[in-house]
């Protein structure tokens, strides 16, 4: 029987994900020579060739791909074993580490934690803010147990390392200067703003979401200003510097808790002068998901946190 060394299999999986021995060594805090030695030992133990030269790089052979398919099942089974053991040992107690992007924390994570403090006081939830894409990196390396991310920036549902749960389709509203000619326009559509100067991030998820929403409405947005911080975006809109899409969940974070029908009243944290409008027609949305390492979702603490997040998502204002 072949010798299936879990440590070496994890090295092979990391090489498959990152593509180079150097990147694998950096990610695993090893030297490149140590990575090569471990993989050579694994190939010898299994009796197959795992790597082949491809220019200055290496790539996995068909045999290595076969090994990885079975290894993913082993890793998932071990996660399930850990989950069952955790339930046996800890019951209602334990700790769940959650990585989440900024607007998801006040809208979903905080209400979930508050509910769990009431219903399961022995369960500790540790929160770590992370960009939507970075949350998966933290999950894969074991730094968090649960990642809240955006579907557009997550691994595909076929990725064998993760289990995904859809939480929310978050509607996107549009913020305009209060004196804008379209601020009170009935039936405002995203396409009506095709000629406006836009404010969104220069890169990253929000840039891609804004661009995709506008392109789906039939135009490419002209980026007048680049910003990723919601307070900065809000201030620029209020100053008449452009328009911006705003996720409904961001309202739960306090950047504009004054409703969505017209201009913000004075005295709300310096955010007066903004008209926040619900778009008519095909309203753009961003899809929020939670993910766990496959097999770990049965852990009692993790399951309770997921249930609390679903409850918080269900309490969000619906799209209009």
Keywords summarizing the entry:
single chain; 320 residues; alpha/beta; Arc Repressor Mutant, subunit A; D-Maltodextrin-Binding Protein, domain 2; 3 domains; two-stranded antiparallel sheet; globular
What report would you give on this structure?
Keywords: DNA-binding, Transcription, Transcription regulation. One of its GO terms (molecular function) is DNA binding. With about 325 residues, this protein is an alpha/beta fold. The protein is built from ten helices and eleven strands. The protein has helices at about 5-20, 20-25, 30-45, 60-90, 105-120, 130-140, 205-215, 230-240, 250, 300-315, and strands spanning about 50-55, 55-60, 95-100, 125-130, 145-150, 160-175, 195-200, 220-225, 245, 275, 285-295. Strands 3, 4, 5, 6, 9, 10 and 11 form a seven-stranded mixed beta sheet that branches. The radius of gyration is 24 Å and the shape is globular. The termini are far apart.
């Amino acid at each position: 029987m072949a010798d299936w060394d879990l440590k070496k299999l994890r090295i092979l999986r990391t090489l498959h994900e990152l593509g180079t021995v150097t990147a694998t060594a950096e990610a695993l805090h090893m030297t490149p020579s140590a990575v090569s030695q471990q993989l050579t030992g694994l190939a010898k133990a299994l009796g197959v060739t795992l790597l082949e030269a491809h220019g200055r790089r290496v790539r996995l052979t068909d045999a290595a791909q076969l090994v990885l398919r079975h290894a993913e099942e082993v890793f998932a089974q071990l996660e399930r074993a850990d989950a069952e053991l955790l339930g046996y040992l800890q019951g209602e107690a334990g700790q769940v580490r959650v990585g989440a992007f900024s607007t998801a924390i006040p809208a979903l994570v905080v209400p979930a934690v508050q509910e769990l403090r009431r219903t399961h006081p022995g369960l500790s939830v540790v929160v770590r803010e992370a960009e939507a894409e970075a949350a998966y990196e933290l999950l894969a390396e074991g730094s968090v147990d649960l990642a809240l991310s955006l579907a557009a920036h997550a691994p595909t549902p076929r990725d064998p390392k993760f289990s995904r749960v859809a939480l929310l389709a978050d509607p996107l509203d549009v913020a305009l200067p209060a004196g804008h000619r379209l601020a009170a326009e009935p039936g405002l559509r995203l396409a009506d703003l095709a000629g406006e100067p836009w404010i969104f991030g220069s890169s990253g998820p929000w840039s891609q979401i804004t661009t995709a929403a506008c392109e789906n409405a039939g135009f490419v947005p002209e980026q007048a200003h680049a910003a990723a911080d919601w307070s900065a975006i809000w201030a620029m809109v209020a100053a008449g510097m452009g328009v911006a899409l705003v996720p409904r969940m961001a309202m739960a974070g306090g950047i504009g808790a004054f409703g969505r029908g017209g201009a913000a009243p004075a005295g709300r944290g310096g955010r007066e002068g903004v008209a926040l409008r619900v778009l008519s027609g095909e309203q753009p949305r961003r899809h929020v998901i939670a993910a766990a390492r496959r097999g770990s979702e049965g852990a009692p603490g993790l399951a309770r946190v997921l249930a609390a997040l679903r409850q918080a998502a269900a309490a969000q204002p619906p799209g209009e």
